[in-house]
Each structure stands twice: as structure tokens, then as C-alpha cells.
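Project outcomes to date are best conveyed with an example. Our students and postdoctoral researchers have been running inverse folding experiments weekly, and each run begins with a structure described purely in C-alpha cells. The record below, which covers 132 residues, was selected by the lab manager from last quarter's runs and is presented without edits.
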């Protein structure tokens, strides 16, 4: 049933009811914690801002090559907040926040001091703390 699977993927929640003017909110349709984020695409060579768009879940530049230096390399920068100067280039995306804090058990970290000739931390071990 390839057709059915394809249909199912396309039907994933797009969190339309999470409004764009809040930083984050729980989606009333699927229950996920959704964050509104802005991204910039910059040239990996000359660092210039490149106009971009969203293709499904991916952010990709509008053109294959940088019009400033001709490079096809690019990287995506996440914006803390949207600046006026970035409005033309910024791409908006709703991102699901992994609620991992609830699942990770508390860990203790210590450093073994058995190697005094080396200043670098030679070994870091972690152990899960069992909740009794
Ligand atoms: Zn949703
Ligand atoms: Zn460039």
C-alpha cells in the first residue's frame, strides 16, 4: 500500500492553529509543543544573506549559486529574533520541541584524576542516578 503511506505522510499535522505571534505553544490538533522560529540562509563562502524558501520541512536557497561569489555552499542560521533588515530573507518555520527533559534521568559527572602529566580532562564518565 505505497499510495496509502504516501497519503499518511502528507497528512501530518502542520500546526495551523498555533498562531505565529507567540514564541511557543501547544498545538491543539496534535498536542506537540511547537516553537515559531525564523531562519536565514547565508552563503557558506562569502556569508552574504541569500533569499530562500521552504520546501516541505526543508529551508533551501532560491537559487543554486550565490550571486555574489558563485558558490553553491550555504548554511542555515537560526535567528533569536527577527530584525527589520532580515525580513526580506528570513524564512518562517514551525518546529516541534522535543520534550526530552522529562525522559532524561539525572546524571552525575566526575573526572578521574589519575593522569597528572596531562592537563586535559582525560576521562569523563557518566552514571545514571537511579530514582528510588
Ligand atoms: Zn499539530
Ligand atoms: Zn557567496
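After processing, the design step wrote out the following sequence:
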Amino acid at each position: 500500500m505505497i499510495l496509502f503511506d504516501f497519503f499518511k505522510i502528507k497528512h501530518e499535522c502542520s500546526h495551523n492553529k498555533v498562531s505565529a505571534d507567540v514564541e511557543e505553544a501547544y498545538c491543539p490538533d496534535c498536542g506537540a509543543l511547537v516553537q515559531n522560529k525564523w531562519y536565514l540562509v547565508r552563503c557558506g563562502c562569502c556569508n552574504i544573506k541569500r533569499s530562500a524558501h521552504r520546501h516541505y520541512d526543508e529551508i533551501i536557497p532560491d537559487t543554486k549559486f550565490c550571486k555574489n561569489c558563485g558558490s553553491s555552499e550555504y548554511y542555515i542560521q537560526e535567528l533569536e529574533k527577527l530584525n527589520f533588515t532580515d525580513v526580506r530573507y528570513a524564512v518562517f518555520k514551525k518546529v516541534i520541541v522535543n520534550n526530552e527533559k522529562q525522559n532524561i534521568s539525572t546524571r552525575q559527572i566526575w573526572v578521574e584524576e589519575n593522569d597528572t602529566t596531562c592537563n586535559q580532562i582525560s576521562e569523563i564518565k557518566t552514571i545514571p542516578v537511579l530514582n528510588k
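The beta strands are 24-26, 33-43, 49-50, 52-55, 58-61, 74-79, 91-96, 107-111, 124-128. The chain is about 5% helix and 35% strand. The training component of this project remains on track.
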